[in-house]
C-alpha cells in the first residue's frame, strides 16, 4: 500500500512541474511587415561579426509597445524600437562571440590570479527555430509573451574595410 501511495505522489509532483518551454502566441497585438536580416563582418579581427535583424511594424500605436528580446539562430539580443518618418522598426543586433581567448594569469600564489575571469555558462536556447525563423518577446500587461516570425529574408552581407 505504501508503494502505491508513493507512486501516486511521485506522479502528481512530476505532472505539476513547470514547463521550461516558452509558449508562443498566435495573434500578437501588432502587425508586422517583411522581416529582414543582414550579416556583417568587420574589417579587423577585433571588430568581430554579427547579424542585424529588422522587423517593420505596421501598427500605429507603437509608443506603448514594450518589445523585450529577439531569439534568432541560437542567439539572443535586446530589441529596440525606432521611429523614422512615421514608420516603426524593431531592430536587434546579434554579435558573434569572439574566438579570442582572454589572457589568464596562472601563478603558484593564488593572489596573483585575482583578475582572471571565470568561464561564462551559456544558457540553453529556449526555442527550436529554422534559419529563417525568429521569436520576439514583448510585454502584454504584466506578462511576457512570445511570437514566432517566419520567412525572414536574408540580404547581402555587409563587409567593412
UniProtKB/TrEMBL annotation:
UniProt keyword annotations, A-Z: Signal
Annotated signal sequence range: 1-19
Name of the featured protein: Lipoprotein
Protein species of origin: Croceitalea vernalis
